[in-house]
Amino acid sequence: MISTHIKKAVSFHCTIQVGLLSLLLTVSAAWISAATDYYQVRGGIPNSQYFFKTNASGNQYLFFIGNSVLAGTGLKDANLRYSAQMVKGFKKYFPEASMPETRHMQPGGSWFGLFRCSRGQAVFGEVICSGHLAILDFAADDRNADIEQVKTSLEGLVRQITLYRATHSRILVYTLTPEILEAYKAGKVPEYINVSEQIADHYNIPSLNLAKYAAGKIIAGEISFKEFSADGINPTDAGARIYAEAVSKFIDELLAAYPVPEKPQRYVLPAPLFPKTDDNGRIVAYEDQQVKQSGSWKPGQASPIGPFRHVLVSDKTGDTLTLKFKGSEIGIIDVVDKDSADYEYSVDGTVFRKLVVTKDVTGPTMRPVSLVKGLDKNTEHELVLKIASPGTARMGGFLLNGTIEDAFAGKSTLERIDAIYAAMNPIVYKPPKDRFANIPKTMSKLRDGGELRMVLLGDSIMGNTSGSSFELLLMRDYPKCKIIKIASLRGSTGCTYYQEDNRVQDYVLKHNPDLLLIGGISNRGDAEAVRSVIKQVRARKPDTEVMLLTPVFGAIRDEHIKTFTREIDTTTSNFRYNMQKVAAEEKCAFFDMTGPWWEYIQNSGKTYGWFMGDAVHANARGCQIIGRLLEIWFKE
Question: Which structural domains are found in the chain, ordered by start?
Answer without folding.
Answer: 24-257 (3.40.50.1110), 281-403 (2.60.120.260), 413-634 (3.40.50.1110)
